[in-house]
């Protein structure tokens, strides 16, 4: 499945402005350009926008690691916000930490245009309806 097809299944992510780059079981990348409507006070990209980016990229990574005919749902998500984004683009890279029979755990690192850490997100996704 192509990144655009995966993203099309998540209308909120599309509405939020998330863009997917590459998408394999081992690594998923995405980005979210800075825009005034995505900001909080002082022109800082809203933490919820960064979390949406990370959740989307992490969910795609989990999905790509599912067995056939299974689906997934987030059980837990822990976010550490590390740096403000005041322009440019937030970049996310998600990689699986654990792929098990009942859960998939994904680590998503978010950086700014200079490669500096912006956020770190660990998601635990349930494996539902295994075929």
UniProtKB/TrEMBL annotation:
<dbReference type="InterPro" id="IPR003736">
    <property type="entry name" value="PAAI_dom"/>
</dbReference>
<keyword id="KW-0378">Hydrolase</keyword>
<dbReference type="Pfam" id="PF03061">
    <property type="entry name" value="4HBT"/>
</dbReference>
<protein>
    <submittedName>
        <fullName>Uncharacterized domain 1-containing protein</fullName>
    </submittedName>
</protein>
<feature type="domain" description="Thioesterase">
    <location>
        <begin position="42"/>
        <end position="118"/>
    </location>
</feature>
<dbReference type="InterPro" id="IPR006683">
    <property type="entry name" value="Thioestr_dom"/>
</dbReference>
<dbReference type="GO" id="GO:0005829">
    <property type="term" value="C:cytosol"/>
</dbReference>
<dbReference type="InterPro" id="IPR029069">
    <property type="entry name" value="HotDog_dom_sf"/>
</dbReference>
<dbReference type="GO" id="GO:0061522">
    <property type="term" value="F:1,4-dihydroxy-2-naphthoyl-CoA thioesterase activity"/>
</dbReference>
């Amino acid at each position: 499945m192509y990144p655009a097809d995966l993203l099309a299944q998540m209308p909120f992510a599309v509405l939020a402005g998330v863009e997917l780059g590459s998408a394999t079981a081992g690594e998923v990348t995405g980005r979210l350009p800075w825009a005034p409507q995505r900001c909080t006070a002082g022109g800082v990209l809203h933490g919820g926008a960064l979390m949406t980016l990370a959740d989307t990229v992490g969910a795609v990574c989990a999905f790509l690691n599912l067995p056939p005919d299974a689906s997934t749902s987030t059980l837990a998500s822990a976010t550490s916000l590390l740096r403000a984004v005041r322009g440019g683009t937030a970049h996310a890279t998600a990689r699986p930490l654990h792929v098990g029979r009942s859960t998939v755990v994904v680590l998503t690192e978010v950086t700014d245009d200079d490669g500096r850490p912006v956020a770190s997100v660990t998601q635990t996704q349930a494996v539902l309806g295994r075929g």
